[in-house]
Design goal:
alpha+beta; Alpha-Beta Plaits; 4-stranded antiparallel beta sheet; 4 helices; 41% helix
């Protein structure tokens, strides 16, 4: 029993020394290349799944002109909301907004429903970049008074 305790004591003393040694991990080259390719593709993709409100779909003669006129009217009424024209043969569709959730899209639809009839659709959206706030201490409250 004393032999086992002294063996464990020596092991406990040497364990931190052994853990301090550098470890080299060797991986599969194909797996590393696949991960690098995945990162590269994700950096190129600028859209994410989300929702928009489709306010019109035009087809036939003058459909393109009608879609562009409606888009211009919408931008005049709501300058802070993005408006897109999508040609989905044979229709020109006018879609507005970049909403991450259905609830956000629904709230906006309720705001515009008296002027623009529309409905919520799933679409790839352009998300707003996250706000980056830099910390800068106030000169007035810094305690140098």
């Amino acid at each position: 029993m004393k032999f086992k305790l002294s063996y464990l004591a020596i092991l406990a003393i040497l364990a931190p020394v052994a853990l301090d040694a550098q470890v080299r991990i060797v991986g599969d080259v194909a797996a590393t290349q696949m991960v690098e390719r995945h990162v590269e593709l994700n950096q190129r993709v600028k859209t994410i799944p989300g929702y928009r409100v489709q306010i019109a779909s035009f087809s036939g003669a003058n459909s393109k002109t009608s879609a562009f006129n409606l888009r211009e009217n919408f931008i005049t009424d709501y300058p802070t909301v993005q408006a897109y024209i999508v040609f989905d043969e044979p229709n020109f569709k006018v879609k507005v907004g970049d909403f991450r959730t259905r609830l956000e899209a629904y709230a906006f639809l309720q705001q515009i429903k008296d002027i623009y009839k529309g409905y919520i659709i799933r679409d790839n959206i352009y998300p707003e970049p996250p706000l980056i706030e830099e910390y800068a201490p106030d000169d007035e409250t810094s305690g140098d008074e």
